[in-house]
Amino acid sequence: MAKQDDNQNNVKPSAEGIAAAARTASKRGLPPVHLWNPPDCGDLDMRIARDGTWFYLGTPIGRPELVRLFSTILRRDGDRYVLVTPVEKVGITVDDAPFVAVDFTAEGQGKDQNLTFETNLGDTAVAGPENPIRVVRDPETGEPSPYVLIRAELEALIDRKSFYRLVDIGAHADHEETSWFGLWSYGQFFPIIPSDELTKT
């Protein structure tokens, strides 16, 4: 009996097993991953590249429905990204952000503007106090990397074409006693770059 238990404890998690558990958990929408606290089963050889491509054992996962399924059980625990089911938790590698914002729609203008983002996996989020936009600039090149929060500490990197469109509808506003160029959405202003720096570029 003890030998059987040892074998069970040594079974490594697999993408197939995680997917099966995710299918069961996802039948009624997004699973409540924040409520689950299963045993940590180590790491899985799965990676999300900066362009949003998911890899398993070094090979791109070619089935969009499977990638979507995995994304529904993704959670961030501190600096670690994990796939969570009611019975196990495994770590995966995320090169930058787990999602990519590939498009957005803008309704209204100025302070009344609302920006709704869509990710590469079909998730949507309206930028605002609960889904903020942030921009990180490379300290050497100044190149911006813009992000929007999709859900529960999971961000999307806003792709280049969308960011250029956002810049076209940006505005200047006071932020922390300084004039900034940024974006309005859901009544909140999200700064991108100080206004005086923008005029120098």
Helix percent band: 10-25%
Structural class of the secondary structure composition?
alpha+beta
Instruction: Tell me the overall shape.
Output: elongated
Average of pLDDT: 90
Main β-sheet, spatial strand arrangement: 3-2-1-6-5-4
Number of strands: 15
- Strand-residue proportion: 35-45%
Number of helices: 5
Please explain how this structure is put together.
With 201 residues, the protein is of the alpha+beta class. It is 21% helix and 42% strand. The chain has five helices and 15 strands. The strands form three sheets. The chain has a six-stranded mixed beta sheet. A six-stranded mixed beta sheet has the order 9-8-7-12-11-10. A hairpin with a 4-residue loop joins strand 5 (80-84) and strand 6. The longest helix is centred in the first third of the chain and has 11 residues, at 15-25. The protein is elongated, with a radius of gyration of 20 Å.
Brief characterization of the structure:
The chain is α+β, with helices and mostly antiparallel strands and 201 residues long. Helices cover 21% and strands 42% of the residues.
Q: How does the SSE layout of this entry go?
A:
Layout: H1 2-10, H2 15-25, E1 40-48, E2 54-56, E3 59-60, H3 64-71, E4 74-77, E5 80-84, E6 89-94, E7 99-107, E8 114-119, E9 124-126, E10 133-137, E11 144-151, E12 154-158, H4 160-168, E13 171-175, E14 178-185, E15 188-194, H5 195-200
Parallel strand pairs: 1-6, 7-12
Antiparallel strand pairs: 1-2, 2-3, 4-5, 5-6, 7-8, 8-9, 10-11, 11-12, 13-14, 14-15
